[in-house]
LysR family transcriptional regulator
Amino acid sequence: MDVNLELYKCFYYVATTLSFSEASRQLFISQSAVSQGIKALEKKLGRELFYRSTKKVSLTPEGEVLFQHVKPALEMISQGEAQLLAEDELQGQLRIGASDTICRYFLIDYLKRFHQDYPGVRIKVTNSTSIGCVELLENRQVDLIVCNLPNSRLIPHMKVQVVKEFQDIFVANPDFFPLEGKALELKKLMEYPLLTLSSKSTTSEYLHQFFAAHKQNLISEVELNSNDLLIDLARIGLGIACVPDYMLASLHGQEASLMQVTLKQQLPPRQLALVYHENLPLSQAAQKFFDYFSAKNA
């Protein structure tokens, strides 16, 4: 027999509350609609399901029999809905590897959004260079990494999705290095103290290759593991620092004391990439985070 589920819901709520008015309140429909629903169900079944009086409502014997079957059925449906909604409240852990600079100047907004969307997920960020992050991924210590490209440590089974393109720039305090309006050859740039990341970084590899391609041997006055420290040293006039452009853009005018040094041989652009194991399934939390970078959500 084809009976609309909504009629059984009307029956269930009247049977459990023994009140047409209370059933209508819980179902968010009118009392008249509840009454019509019960009448329609009784007509389809050919049985009277409730005794009705001005003072109370009670189940008939036939209604009692039906209620014993309808009650577990609707409660199982309700439990199924609750379980699906609970799955929406994502649990588990998201493990990400990234450098200081990438975390602070690129990832932080995504992490904030993810934490707001999925407060039940524990977020673990492991800090390392882009080279070190590949090792973390290879050893399965993280679910995914965000690193610089090119990255010589990436291997074929790692899936790479570019999420941002950026430009490396040289910046200096013009009070110490009055270079505004000048375009320097790399050879001329080498006459100034240069501040760069340490040799154990993708940025250092990239810079040395670029200078070598222009027949220059890059020699840095200072090598550090932190772009923030490079900015600090450039601000006080210790040298000309090489940093990613998105870093200065995120400081919202705090680095007005610094100016970009123009080069005749501009550094080629690089990329930030989200990387994970192609042959290992992402956790549900990692997949949700990865989805933030898809074309429709970017």
About this structure: The mean pLDDT is 89. Residues 143 and 283 are 8 Å apart (CA to CA). The domain at 168-268 is CATH 3.40.190.10 (D-Maltodextrin-Binding Protein; domain 2). The chain has three domains: 5-88, 93-161+276-291, 168-268.
